[in-house]
Write a structure and sequence with these properties.
It contains two helices and two strands. Strands 1-2 form a two-stranded antiparallel ribbon.
């Protein structure tokens, strides 16, 4: 992004933004769910189709930046 306040429009943009924020910080996000249900859209458009996901357990997002480790 070019420094302007731009909204995320696609799932890849969201994933890239999350990775950029967490990489090199030793970050881990951990969520634990019990009988959690969410309707996941197929796209970021207003008329997107939705799929029902059921989660029962732990979801972890970890990041690792090998390039940063090599410079240390």
């Amino acid at each position: 992004m070019n420094g302007m306040n731009a909204d995320t429009k696609t799932w890849p943009e969201l994933a890239i933004g999350l990775y950029d924020k967490l990489t090199g910080r030793g970050a881990e996000i951990s969520y634990e769910f019990q009988n959690f249900e969410i309707f996941v859209p197929s796209s970021a458009s207003a008329d997107a189709q939705h799929a029902l996901w059921r989660v029962n357990g732990t979801v972890r997002i970890r990041t690792k930046d090998d390039a940063a480790a090599a410079r240390a």
